């Protein structure tokens, strides 16, 4: 399940770092302390960076719009519901310099999953972690089988750990191949831009850095695997805000509906 949380930004022009998922990661873990779930429970959730009208400066991203949004997703609906209850019990929150007040929630309506889906990364995708690969900062060419194989191992391990799938279902999930958008990668390289960067992984108790990739790609996989990564993210450290995807050539604002008691009203649409 995926929802878009709409916040009122009370101090327009305030700044967040370019990469700020670690700030929301700590905040979400704080919200979990007010739920029936433990902070260390394997809850399989994912989230994006904060979306809104921004202006770039040397300090980071200045948020200029009155409304900003955060996409939050999870395998289990009850995880989303309890996190929202915990969030809306607070009149305002402080994330970096931003003073935010939660206003409303929209549910993203998911298209029917198929075996071939084209995605874009709305947060960096991490393919390496110590449990699968020794060097979390190594650059791996996305077109190499190694890149797809690491993501396959990560995804199937997480699906098995979730306890959400039977052994018979897991046996059906053998098909998995990621194919990067070659034209996009060539264009980025011609323009001398980067699609892979090193990011700090804060909250691990020690200084850890990982390599994150951002590029469009096609994924060939079982529809249930596609559904899992849409709700839980793809790759490693998804509960730290890495690996959130969206559908290419799709406007998410055109496939939403008000969600539950925190649904969008005409007043907070303005």
Automatic annotation (TrEMBL):
<dbReference type="GO" id="GO:0016788">
    <property type="term" value="F:hydrolase activity, acting on ester bonds"/>
</dbReference>
<dbReference type="InterPro" id="IPR049435">
    <property type="entry name" value="Cas_Cas6_C"/>
</dbReference>
<dbReference type="GO" id="GO:0003723">
    <property type="term" value="F:RNA binding"/>
</dbReference>
<keyword id="KW-0694">RNA-binding</keyword>
<protein>
    <submittedName>
        <fullName>Uncharacterized protein predicted to be involved in DNA repair (RAMP superfamily)</fullName>
    </submittedName>
</protein>
<feature type="domain" description="CRISPR associated protein Cas6 C-terminal">
    <location>
        <begin position="113"/>
        <end position="246"/>
    </location>
</feature>
<keyword id="KW-0051">Antiviral defense</keyword>
<dbReference type="Pfam" id="PF01881">
    <property type="entry name" value="Cas_Cas6_C"/>
</dbReference>
<dbReference type="InterPro" id="IPR045747">
    <property type="entry name" value="CRISPR-assoc_prot_Cas6_N_sf"/>
</dbReference>
<dbReference type="GO" id="GO:0051607">
    <property type="term" value="P:defense response to virus"/>
</dbReference>
<dbReference type="InterPro" id="IPR010156">
    <property type="entry name" value="CRISPR-assoc_prot_Cas6"/>
</dbReference>
<comment type="similarity">
    <text>Belongs to the CRISPR-associated protein Cas6/Cse3/CasE family.</text>
</comment>
């Amino acid at each position: 399940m995926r929802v878009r949380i709409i916040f009122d930004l009370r101090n327009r022009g305030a700044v967040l770092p370019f990469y700020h998922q670690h700030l929301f990661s700590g905040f979400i873990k704080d919200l979990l302390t007010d739920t029936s779930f433990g902070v260390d429970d394997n809850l399989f959730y994912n989230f994006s960076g904060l979306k809104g009208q921004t202006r770039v400066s040397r300090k980071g991203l200045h948020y200029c719009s009155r409304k900003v949004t955060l996409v939050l997703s999870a395998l289990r609906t009850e995880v989303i519901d309890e996190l929202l209850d915990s969030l809306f019990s607070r009149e305002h929150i402080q994330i970096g310099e931003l003073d935010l007040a939660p206003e409303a929630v929209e549910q993203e309506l998911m298209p029917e999953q198929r075996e071939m889906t084209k995605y874009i990364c709305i947060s960096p995708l991490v393919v390496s972690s110590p449990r699968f690969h020794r060097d979390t900062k190594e650059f791996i060419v996305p077109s190499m089988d190694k890149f797809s194989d690491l993501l396959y191992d990560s995804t199937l391990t997480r699906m098995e750990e979730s306890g959400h799938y039977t052994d018979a279902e897991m046996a059906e999930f053998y098909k998995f191949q990621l194919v990067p958008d070659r034209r996009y990668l060539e264009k980025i390289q011609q323009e001398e831009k980067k699609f892979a960067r090193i990011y700090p992984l804060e909250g691990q108790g020690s200084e850890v850095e990982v390599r994150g990739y951002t590029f469009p790609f096609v994924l060939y996989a079982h529809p249930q695997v596609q559904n899992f990564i849409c709700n839980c993210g793809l790759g490693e450290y998804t509960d730290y805000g890495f690996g959130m995807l969206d559908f290419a050539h799709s406007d998410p604002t055109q496939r939403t509906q008000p969600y539950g008691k925190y649904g969008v009203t005409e007043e907070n649409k303005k």
